[in-house]
Amino acid sequence: MNNINIYHLDEEERARLGVRELPGSLLDALHELDQDVSLTNALNPTIYAAFRRAKLEEWEQYRLNVTDWEVNRYLEVS
Questions:
Q1: pLDDT tens digit string along 12-69?
Q2: What is the rounded CA–CA span in Å between residue 42 and residue 38?
Q3: Is the dihedral of CA 34, 28, 16, 1 positive or negative?
Q4: Quick one: which of 2, 8, 53, 74 has the fewest CB in 10 Å?
Q5: Burial 53-64 (b: 16+ CB within 10 A, else e)
Q6: Would you call 11 helix, strand, or coil by DSSP?
Q7: Residue 52 is part of which domain span?
Q8: How far apart are CA 47 and CA 53, in angstroms?
């Protein structure tokens, strides 16, 4: 895989080589983390719960933020 640029591969080629995609958002990453028993067990339950709460709050703040791109894309600018 050292000489392969995965960004030049199509979806079928990536699947054949076992190349998976990273989560598309923080929320998706948290769902993946919830499924990772090895990692969640390695963390103290109190620490994991606090981390998860903090990241869910971060996601909520991000989700509610209107970006400049969205303003330019969806609102008329006079």
A1: 999 999 999 999 999 999 999 999 999 988 988 899 999 999 999 999 999 999 999 9
A2: 6
A3: negative
A4: 2
A5: eeeeeebeeeee
A6: helix
A7: 23-74
A8: 10
